[in-house]
Amino acid sequence: MSETMHAVRITGHGGPEVLEPAEVAVPAPGTGEVLVRVGAVALNNTDLWTREGAYGRSGRPSGWRGPIRFPRIQGADVAGRVVATGPGADGRLVGRRVVVDPAVYDSEGPQANPVGLMGSERDGGYAEYVTAPAGQVHDVTESPLTEDQLASLPTAYGTALGMIERGRLREGETALVTGASGGVGLALVQLTRARGARVLAVSSGSKVDAVREAGAHEVVDRGQDVAGRLRAAAPEGIDVALDVVAGDLLDEGLPMLREAGRWVVAGALGGHSVTFDVRRLYLHNAQLIGSSMHTREHFGLLMALARRGEFQPVVAAAFPLAEAARAQEELARREHVGKLVLHP
FRET partner for 218 with CA separation of 20 to 30 A, picked from 23, 67, 149, 194? Predict the structure, then answer.
């Protein structure tokens, strides 16, 4: 193995132009860590917002959870093979096909909260190799999914399953999925359908067929009377809303929740600031739940589903690592359905 590797990193916040190819040292796995040869790394909105510093407040750009130490190799979603282990790590992982849980947790234990992210708070997978804690490397050697599909899982599907678990979605319930053609949205459609719930999805007209093919029972075009069409599709109400858009739909949608319904928010594509009638919340024992990524337990459940191939992640396109900037520009246009991946 060479002592250096190709990588793409950011040296500051800005547009796609700050993504710079570089030749850097192959990282050495520390105590309890493994070294993974990256087979595929998927793109996420977190890549764009971290690069732009958009998580910070006005005039104070920030990474996912705080200031970034530059230069930083981006890329949270890695699938590959373990090629080396550090002191204290299980040597039996060498040669195994794996998916990396990209979260940096605040404590040990299955319910720990994510407080950092690979590609923001630590170097990620826009490179030929990446290190990761051995306990966060999941063996998926037996999975029927391709490497590109496996790389699509950590952030999008991890976030989706975190929303579903925190919203306590049960078989037979009716779920609303917003932003259904995006990475998290399409994951929500597939995982909600796999759980045996009825799926009502909101998407744009050109992507309705793809969302329906992913498993949605009903798809409402976001360019039309969304609230009215949702009420018509679910006259008895919605049990759980899985929302990555927020904006005006939160105010319009809360009255659609059944008694003790749950509205789970994990994104703000429709706007950061919202207003709603708080009476719709407390008079009906509804719950408004924030959901950020996943716990270790959620990620373990996701990997079990992946090993069995219980869903098929949609990969829209793949790019060579050197074209990371072009891939991020494509992601920002939101004209695709499914995930975009890079091949180092």
Answer: 149
pLDDT tier, 301 (very low <50, low <70, confident <90, very high otherwise) = very high
The predicted-structure confidence for 142-176, as pLDDT tens digits, reads as follows 999 999 999 999 999 999 999 999 999 999 999 99
User: Could you give the count of Cα atoms lying within 13 Å of 135 in the half-sphere of its Cβ?
Assistant: 12
Q: Which fold has domain 168-290?
A: Rossmann fold (3.40.50)
pLDDT in tens, 3-18: 999 999 999 999 999 9
Tokens (6 digits) for 147: 């490497």
Beta bridge partners of 37: 81, 129
Name which of 228, 282, 275, 218 is nearest 256 in CA terms: 228
Q: What are the distances in angstroms from CA 330 to CA 45, 61, 90, 245, 323?
A: 11, 23, 39, 20, 11
Which residues on adjacent β-strands are paired with residue 159?
A: none
Taking only the tens place, the pLDDT of each residue in 164-219 is 999 999 999 999 999 999 899 999 999 999 999 999 999 988 899 999 999 999 99
Residue 113 contacts residue 106 (beta carbons within 8 Å):
yes
Q: Is 206 exposed, middle or buried (0-12, 13-18, 19+ CB in 10 A)?
A: exposed
Sequence-separated (6 or more) residues with CB below 8 Å from residue 297: 110, 111
The β-bridge relationship of strands 103-105 and 114-117 is antiparallel
Query: Topology of 4-156+294-343 in CATH?
Result: Quinone Oxidoreductase; Chain A, domain 1 (3.90.180)
Q: Where are the domains of the chain?
A: 4-156+294-343, 168-290
Q: Largest alpha-carbon pair distance within the chain?
A: 64
Mind giving me the DSSP string for 208-231?
A: HHHHHHHT-SEEEETTS-HHHHHH
pLDDT-based confidence at 273, cuts 50/70/90?
A: confident
Burial of residue 163, with CB atoms counted within 10 A of its CB: 0-12 exposed, 13-18 middle, 19 or more buried: buried
